[in-house]
Amino acid sequence: MRAVLVFCLLWLSLTTAAAAREFTVLVYNVENLAGADGRTLSNDYRPQLYSRTHLMTKMNNIARVCAQFNDGNGPDIILFQEIERDINSDQYTFDHQGMLRHFDGTPIEEMLGARYNREIARMPVEALLLKTLSDRGMKGYRVAAADDAMVPGPRRVVSHINVIFSRFAIGSVQTYLLEDAPAILEVQVEVEGRPLYLFNNHWKFGVDNTFSERSRIDAAELVRERLDEILGVNPNADVIIAGDLNCLHDQKVRYGWKRTAVNDVLRAGNEERLLRGDRVDLYNLWNELPANQRGSGLVDGRWTTFMQMILSRGLYDLNGVQYIDNSFEVAAFAGLNVNAEGQPYRWSFKGVGQGFSENFPIVARFRTVPNNRTDQYIELKPNGGRMAQK
Description:
7-stranded mixed sheet; single chain; Deoxyribonuclease I, Chain A; 6-stranded mixed sheet
C-alpha cells in the first residue's frame, strides 16, 4: 500500500511538472520606432535625418535585445511602447501573418532596400519589426495594437501606440483612449487554455508635474475600473499591468501628493504577502529589488522606475498562470544596451544610427500551474536582487 502511495505521488509530481509551461514577459519602450516613409508626427524622424538605414539599425538593435531571452528565441510576450502610429490608414487593420507569408524568403534588408516600394512604405512599422524578429529566428508572434489611428481632435498629436507581440493565442482586444497620451491596450491571451489579461500603458511624461500626474490618474482610473470588472467576476484573475508609466513606483512617498496614479488609484502594494488578504490585490514588482538596484532610466541624473510591471493576486495562487517568484529583472546587458557609464545606451542618428533606448526594458518569468487552488499561494523567498546584465 505504501509503495502504491509513493508511486502515485511520484506520478503526480512528474505529470504536474510536465504540464507546467514557463514563459517570459518583456516590457520594452523602444524610444520612438518610426517608419521611414516620411509620414511622421515626429519632426526629428523626417527623411533629412532618418533613413531606411536608420530604421534597419533601430530594428536590428531591438532584435538584439529580444534575442537575449529564451536561447535566442525571444520573449514569449512583449509589451512595446513608443511604436509610432500608422497615419496612412483611417482604420487600424493589418494582416501581420499574411505579410509574413507574402514576404517569406525576402529578407527585411531587401524589403527596406532594393525591393522597397509603396506597399512596404505603407506598412505599419511594427509589421516591419515583426518581420525583423522573424528573420532573426524569433518567430510565432501574433500582434495586437491599440486602434486609435484616426481619432479626431487634439489626440491627433499623440504620435505613438502600444503594441503587444504574443506567442499565445490572442482573444479579446480593447483600446481605452486618453486625451493626451497613447491609448491603453488591453489584450487577453490564452496560455494553454488559461486566460491572462495584459494591460499595456504609456502614460504622460513629467514625473514631478502635478498636471501630468492628473493625466496619469485619469489613465489609472480607466485601468482600475476595468480591473474591478475583471476581479468582480473572478477575484483571482491573472492580470499584468505594465508599461512606461512615467512615474515612480513610490510616487506618493517621493512627492507627498494627496493622490497619485500608481499608489492611490491603482492601489499597487509593496508587499507580496498582503495579496493573501482582502485589502490588497496588486503588487509592484520593483519592490522585489533592493533600493540600489531600482532603476530603468534616468531623469536629471537620477534613476527612475518609469518602466513598471504590476501583478494581480491571481498570479501568486496555485491556479492558472503563476509568477515565478524573484524572476523580475532589469534587462540591462553590458556591451549591448548599457553605455560606458552604466546607463541606458540611448538611440542616436549618428552615422547609420546607433544605440537603443533611454529606458532599460524590464522582464519577468511566469508558468502555468494545474493545481486549481485559488486558496493557496506560492512560497515566497527573500530576493538578493540582480540585474540581467550580471
